[in-house]
Each structure stands twice: as C-alpha cells, then as structure tokens.
Amino acid sequence: MGSEEPSGNRIDMDRIALLGSHQNQLTSWLSSHPEGHERGAIIFFRRLGRKVVGLPHSERFVSFDIELMDDDWILDSSEVHLRINMRKLPEMYFRCETENLVLGFVHSHPSGVLHFSRKDDINEENLIHGLAGCNGIHSILVSIIYCDGTWRGRIRTGKEPNEAKPVRHISVLSDKLELHHITESKDSPESLLRQEAAFGKPFNAKMGSLRAAVVGLGGTGSPVATMLARCGIGELVLIDGDDFEETNMNRVRGYKSSDVGHKKAESLKKFIDDLGLGIKVIAFPEFVGDSGEAIDSLSSADVVFGCTDDVAGRDLLNHCIYYYGLILIDSGLTGFIQEGEDGTPHLRDHRGRVSCILPEIGACLRCQGIVTDMKLKYEQAIKDRPELADLYPETLKREHYLIGGGNSAPGVGPFTSMTADNALATFMNLIKPYRRLPSDLRQDNIWVDFVHMSIHSNEPAENPDCIYCRKKFLTLKEENYRLDMAKLGKISNV
Ligand SMILES: [Zn+2]
Ligand SMILES: [Zn+2]
Question: How many Å separate Cα 372 from the centre of its chain?
C-alpha cells in the first residue's frame, strides 16, 4: 500500500525542475531494463529559489547532472523492487558537499503504480540518514518516481528524515513547459472557465502552480502583468524602479491618472490586488540591476517576462536563464520614423518582438542580436552624458553608437499591447502547445510588423562559442556574488 501524502496548501511546497535533456536520458534508461525490472539513477540538483519576502517559501531544485545506476549499483531487482549497493553512495554525498548540490534519487515503477510504496519510504529514510550523517542535518533528498511517462516527486530533509514532503510540481524544461504531479482542484474559478474551454482543466491548475516575474511595467509590462493575473498565474513579482508618468498613459493597463509620480511597481500591485482574484503579488520598486533582492526573486520564478526598454537589464535577464534554469519571454519594439518636409512624422517601420528562450532551447538574447556590446556601450554613454541623446542619430552611428529607445521614442498603445499579448500567448503555448508554426517561423524569435502586417523570425548569429546558449552550460554556478556580479551583492539567504 502506498504511503499517503498529506493534503494542504501546495503553494508552500518546493518545486522540482528537470532539464529536457535530463528527462530524455532518464526516460530511456528507466524504461529499458531488458526484463522489465525497476531501474534507478542519481540526479544532482542545484538548489535555487532564494527566499522572497512576501511570497510563500518555495525552493526550486533544478537538475544539473545525472548518474545512471548500472549493474555495479544494483544488488538485485525485479518488476516491483530495486535494492541498491549503499557502498556507492558516499561518493555521491561527497560530490554534493564539494559542489554544493542536492542529492536526488529516481527510480521507475514498471508495474504501473504511480505512488510511493512502503519500501520507498524505508529506502529514502536510509538514504537521508546516510546523507545527513556525512553532510549534516541540513541535507536534502529529492526523491522521484517515473511511471508511464509521468513523474512524481517528494522531498526529505536531514532534520525530519521520517517526513516526506510533497512538492508543488515537477516541471520539465524542454521546448515546452511540462508540469507533472499537479493537484487539480475540483472546479476552476468561474473567472477561468472560458480559458478552460480552450485549453482544458489541467491548464488552469498548471498556471496556478507557477510563479512569474515581470521586469519593466510600461507599455508591454503592464498588459503582461495584468493579463497574467487575470489568466490565473499563482504568484506574480513586479519589478520596475520608474515612477509612473503622464506620457505613459496612452499605452498601459491598470494605472490611473492619480498614479502619476508614484512607483509603477507599487501602483500596479495595488491594481492587481484590487482585482480580487487571489493572486499573490509583490512589488520591487527598483531597477533589476540595482537590487539583489529582485535578482533573488528571479531565481525563485518559473518564468520571467522581460519588458524593460534598457539593454543592460535585458543582458541580466539573459544571464538568469542559464544561472537559474528559467524560461525567459522577452519582448521589445523597434521603429523608424521619417519626417516629411513639413515636419509631419511618417511611421515607416514599427515591429514588436517576442523572444522565447528556455535553458536548452532557443538562441539567447546575445545570439539574437538583442543584446550586443555596442548597444550596451551606447546606453552607458547616454547615461554618462545625457546630452548625447540629443545629437543627430547619424552622428551617433558614425561614432559607433546604436540608436536606443529614449524618452521621445514612439509608443503606441495597440502596438505595445499586441506585443504583450503575443508574449503571453507564447507562454500559454509552452504550457499547452496549440500553435502550428510555419517552417520559417522560430519559436524563440517572432516579430510582428505593424506597418506591413506580416510576421517573421530573424536567424540568430552563428556563434558556436556563445557561453550561454551554445556551450550548454545549463545552470551556471554562482560563486560569491549574485550572477557573479559584485554590484548585485553577496548571496545571503540560499
Ligand atoms: Zn518504488
Ligand atoms: Zn547565445
């Protein structure tokens, strides 16, 4: 008889994430015993998801490396049991200790029972006792079973070795976002019934188990954030250091005239709280590059929406994908205005981009040419000498600067909103794939051209040496500082 899991608020529970390549490696191993016996593997996890004041504490364990349990590991096995050689474990404990990794143990249930058994309880208790004996009582054991294409997981700690803690979900980050082991509530709230009609009942439960961060809360960020709340996201982090200005009013959602002069993040949090949808929202009225806590909140998110208009901010988010095993959905607009002889502006080009990048799939923002050293240099030059922004653009080009946004850049509500909606639709497509993209469109880079009303993708630069998306660093390891940048401060509350 399987041991029962305590019921309760799943929001307070931790999350497990498997990279798609790890899932593939594991499923082919776990399901291929020649006589149909149980098989096992060790998974090393990075422990991410630092504490965020105001949100439920929910750590993220992101898979980092795998050790398949070959014959050396196995004392005996059958279709319903697996006895492993405990002498092999100290080596694994040692690696966890020296590389600051969390130990995971996964085994298959070829019999088709997707529940932890009494035997599993006993095995896990032995494992965590051994681990805590070597590495201390703060040790953590992630235990996973695999059965018929799905995953189920739970967690034990050295402090309470006899208590198996259920997890919020197990996510698989491939070219989509699979979510396993979600508890569906009996009924979706009435506000989400029409969405359920399109995507099915699990979709709403999946949305409710996810934490999203929105960085930048202007023309694209505010529609993304408010629509995420309406679509039933579980938790929402809002990050923007700017005050709301009257010139923003033509293209935002959720702000009122009385918000002018107040922090965007705080005003938008209040708006979303007042919707009364039960979404947990926190606001960081700071720029993401100035706030260690905001970076910590990104480490705790499942998905980040990049809606900033600065290149340095985007560069940081690009780092976060690979350090924290995140999904980044970045959006931005570009345009070109030609002035007629009488000074009338003509919109010659205006396009909105959505880049959807997962840790192992998609070209990063550097390879997409969204972040370049030249753009970063230009942006910094304008910061240092604001008068440069008033120079004629051709002069800037000659001096090797690129043309950035700036305060007088065009901003038209329908175009920013359409880009925001495309960002959110792209996110939904990760959870419940519904798109049938033509062969010339890439999931990681979609542009909507508002002038010619066409949709296209750009090819990424061929950079086999890109340290982010090409070297498959998966989850990079921070040493002392957040994202290894001293200005973001020391990591304090892992
Ligand atoms: Zn078992
Ligand atoms: Zn790259």
Answer: 22
Rg from Cα positions in the chain? 24
Report pLDDT digits (tens) over 284-343: 999 999 999 999 999 999 999 999 989 999 999 999 999 999 999 999 998 888 888 998
pLDDT of residue 12: 79
Q: What's 190-488's CATH class?
A: alpha beta
Q: Which ligand does the CA of 367 lie closest to? A: 2
Domain spans in the chain, listed from the N-terminal domain onward? 15-180, 190-488
Alpha-carbon distance of 173 to 55, in angstroms, equals: 23
Centroid of chain to Cα 343: 45
At the fourth CATH level, the homologous superfamily of domain 15-180 is Cytidine Deaminase, domain 2 (3.40.140.10)
Q: Are 457 and 353 in contact (CB under 8 A)?
A: no
* 21 vs 199: CA distance, rounded Å: 26
The answer to whether the beta carbons of residues 264 and 239 sit under 8 Å apart is no
Please check whether residue 413 is in contact with residue 250, taking contact to mean a CB–CB distance below 8 angstroms: yes
Alpha carbon 1 to chain centroid, angstroms: 36
Residue 356 CA to ligand 2 center (angstroms) comes to 13
pLDDT digits (tens, 9 = 90+) for 160-205: 999 999 999 999 999 999 999 987 666 789 999 999 999 998 999 9
Return the amino acid letter for 40. Answer: G
Ligand 1 centroid–CA 144 distance in Å is 9
Measured in Å, residue 463 CA sits from the centre of ligand 2 at 7
pTM of structure: 0.94
Axis-axis angle for helices 201-208, 413-431 (nearest 10): 110
Encode pLDDT of 382-411 as tens digits.
888 877 766 655 555 444 333 444 445 678
User: How do residues 216-226 score in pLDDT, each as one tens digit?
Assistant: 999 999 999 99
Average pLDDT along the chain: 91
Alpha-carbon distance of 366 to 460, in angstroms, equals 9
**Greatest CA separation for the chain:** 86
Number of other residues whose CB lies within 10 A of the CB of residue 440: 8
Distance 61 CA to ligand 1 centre (A): 21
* Token digits of residue 319: 């780092």
CA of 384 to the centre of ligand 2 (A): 28
**What type of residue sits at position 199?**
F
Percent of the chain with pLDDT over 90: 77
